[in-house]
Structure prediction request, 91 residues.
Amino acid sequence: MADLQNPRLIYLKGALFLLCGILSAAILLAQSPHWQTMVLLVLTVWSFSRFYYFAFYVIQHYVDDSFRFAGLWDFAKHCWHSRAGKVGHGE
Prediction:
């Protein structure tokens, strides 16, 4: 599959992700309308957002500036190879 390059489609994709997240959160909070549920949902979203930033910005700019991650799978492979002591780019 080719990379998405049309700016309008990229914005549409982002808007659909946002809509999906809002609807999912609304349904979850409707099923369990407690402040604890809301706090845990906010912490979950915030934590995963920070992890994503860590995987794609922090690692590239502060740990290994020669490696470009194409996705979370590439990040996981990079971490696995780093732990095994055989860091290789493009493996």
Observations:
- Residues 87-91 have pLDDT under 50 and may be disordered.
- The chain has three helices and no strands.
- The chain has two domains: 1-33, 34-91.
- Residues 35-63 form the longest helix (29 residues).
